[in-house]
């Protein structure tokens, strides 16, 4: 039975990672070329809140590798940048799941507001860490693209900060709705 459950968790993770990757092909620029929504954060966040941070990080790693192989060909500079911006940045998204026990506990007790707060807090953590990785990659590897006279630190903050905020707004709204409308998504069939 334990082995069957582990297989179920892995298959579910592969499905959610594939869904996250598929959503990356939906147009996601917000007018300004540097601000992009990453819709894949939503299914990966759902999976992480269902299964916890370790399975979430593994699914994020798969998503990052898929993104690197399928879309990253023009943005692969060197091994350190590749590792930081793909497996690490996408993998830390799975840390959304660190609030999973809190969310489940409050959903089972009927405390929807606390469950929403937990899910949103987890999303904020995962989103922040993803864009923190991209920020440092921007400083150290993409800083040469900064406009003349602008520091790489500020340039990366502008480029990655806009995407962080846009994704933060999207995630807060979506997870607040998901937890309220479909709480069983985070509690049912987890054994």
TrEMBL record:
Keywords: Membrane, Transmembrane, Transmembrane helix. It comes from the Bacteria. GO terms for molecular function: thiamine transmembrane transporter activity. The chain crosses the membrane at residues 7-26, 82-103, 115-141, 153-179. Pfam families: Thia_YuaJ. GO terms for cellular component: plasma membrane. NCBIfam families: ECF_ThiT_YuaJ. This is Proton-coupled thiamine transporter. It comes from Lapidilactobacillus dextrinicus DSM 20335.
């Amino acid at each position: 039975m334990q082995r069957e459950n582990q297989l179920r968790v892995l298959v579910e993770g592969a499905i959610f990672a594939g869904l996250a990757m598929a959503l990356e092909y939906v147009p996601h620029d917000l007018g300004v070329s540097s601000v992009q929504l990453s819709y894949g954060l939503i299914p990966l966040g759902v999976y992480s809140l269902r299964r916890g941070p370790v399975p979430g990080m593994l699914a994020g790693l798969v998503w990052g590798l898929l993104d690197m192989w399928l879309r990253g060909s023009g943005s692969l500079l060197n091994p350190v940048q590749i590792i930081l911006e793909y497996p690490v940045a996408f993998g830390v998204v799975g840390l959304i799941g660190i609030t999973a026990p809190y969310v489940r506990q409050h959903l089972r007790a009927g405390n929807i507001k606390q469950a929403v707060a937990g899910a949103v807090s987890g999303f904020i953590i995962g989103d922040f860490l993803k864009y923190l990785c991209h920020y440092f990659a921007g400083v150290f590897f993409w800083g040469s693209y900064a406009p003349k006279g602008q520091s790489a630190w500020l340039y990366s903050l502008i480029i990655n900060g806009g995407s962080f905020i846009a994704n933060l707004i999207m995630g807060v709204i979506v997870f607040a709705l998901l937890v309220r409308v479909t709480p069983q998504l985070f509690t049912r069939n987890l054994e």
